[in-house]
Amino acid sequence: MTNPTNMPKISIQRIEHDINAIARFGFNEDDRGVYRQGFSENDMAARQWLRDQFEALGVPHRMDGAGNVIGRFGPAHDDGEIPAVVIASHLDSVPAGGIFDGVLGVVAGLEVIRTMKDAGIEPSYPIEVIATSEEEGRFGGMLGAQAMTGHLTREWLENAADEHGLALKDAMATAGLDYLQALHAYRRPESLHAFLELHVEQGPVLDVEKTTIGIVEGISGVFKWMVKLKGKADHAGTAPMHLRSDALMGMVDFAHEIPRIIDEEGTDKSRITIGHVALKPGFPHTVPGEADFTIVGRDLDEDVMKKLADACRKVLESISRRHGLKFDYEQMSWLAPAYCNDEIIAMVERNTKSLGYSYKIMPSGAGHDVQFFTGLTRTGLIFVPSVKGISHAPDEWTHWSDIERGAQLLCNCALELACGAQQIAPQTLPSDAC
Fold it and tell me: Mean pLDDT throughout 293-297?
């Protein structure tokens, strides 16, 4: 692995050790998956593990009211007024998840601090490594990032619950947290110098194209609909095909139209997915009288999202008339795209070139903590390849060599940001100090 001679090198051995150490919290021997959902016992144990690492390094650390673990490495005289370069991701997992999702970004941030301490580097801007809480949406949001960026309300905190009916406030209480304190986790924009996140791609693009680094230009916006097509349940043996009002046929016809909708109204970044379907009455010998299903649309341009949504509505209206169906839908959510900072993108690209890595400027179709910080500070998101694009599954894998390259890039970018440059620009760092 090449690296400019004046930049300290990260240790892939320490990163591998740490990722494997965290994997033990919630690892299931039967399916080889990780079960570390937000505010579970395993999740809180992983957070304590991180605090122990900060303690061993002599790095001041704390857990805020939302459960975010924060370690701050910086000038000894810092009273908290100097804005920080934040390196963040999450430690919680989906059920039966993999070992890299989120964890990589936290461990790589920890390694940045270790590398700087080993090299005797004292940053001008403090480095904060943050393990955000409840990113995977067990309770319906990205709690830690939302708390730090002012996107929480008391009403939401009091009403949020997981799929089993467990209230967020009760889960937090079991974890030793007062849910109302999450409202005190907000970070003022002036407390942040920049935000960086390193993450596995969770998709196949980099792996298929044999590209080392993905430099993310932004997080795709997402809209979610709950659609209801209502026809007439009928006997599967006696109802003639041409006289049916088959709700399933209406849904299938719409599914076939999705590629055309994207071709005409979308971009190469557009996605439309039918992810959940429920048929009623759901009996083998009955024509489906009702089809309830979700539509989730994504694009990096909100105007394109609106065109996609409008096209979906018009196509569903046309198909409903053809099949004699009643069409109704409810928009469950609309999240606008979030764009990474142009200066940070340029800085990451320059550092990627200096390391000699192949790279691709690309969008992220999945949500990440970074998206909530785009309105608060300058942000950047770096991807490393996921083998076969697999994520949120036990066989999620990223090669250690790719992790090493991504972590080194993150370290070099963090050094540039933290070592005193008021504007992001090429600079030369001595090997032993900023």
Answer: 96
Is 190 marked within a binding site?
no
User: Does 101 appear as a known binding residue?
Assistant: yes
Q: What per-residue string of b and e applies to 204-240 under the rule 16 or more CB within 10 Å gives b?
A: ebbbeeebbbbbbbbbbbbbbbebbbbbbbbeeeebe
The two structure tokens encoding residue 277: 């379907």
CB atoms within 10 A of CB 293: 21
Compute the chain's Rg from CA coordinates: 24
Amino acid residing at 189: P
Rounded to the nearest 10 degrees, how much is the dihedral formed by the CA atoms of 309, 313, 315, 316?
130
323: annotated binding-site residue?
no
Digit-coded pLDDT (tens) for 380-398: 999 999 999 999 999 999 9
Q: What residue spans of 149-242 are helical by DSSP H?
A: 154-159, 168-174, 205-209
Question: How many whole angstroms separate alpha carbon 229 and alpha carbon 242?
Answer: 18
> What does DSSP say about strands 69-73 and 338-339: parallel, antiparallel, or unpaired?
unpaired
163 is in an annotated binding site: no
Of 309, 322, 330, 331, nearest to 247 by C-alpha is 322
| Tens of pLDDT, residues 249-269 | 999 999 999 999 999 999 999
Residue 3 has pLDDT above 80, yes or no: no
Residue ranges of domains in the chain, CATH in brackets? 12-219+338-418 (3.40.630.10), 221-335 (3.30.70.360)
Consult the annotation and say whether 61 binds a ligand: no
Q: pLDDT by residue (tens digit) across 197-215?
A: 999 999 999 999 999 999 9
Q: Mean pLDDT for the chain?
A: 94
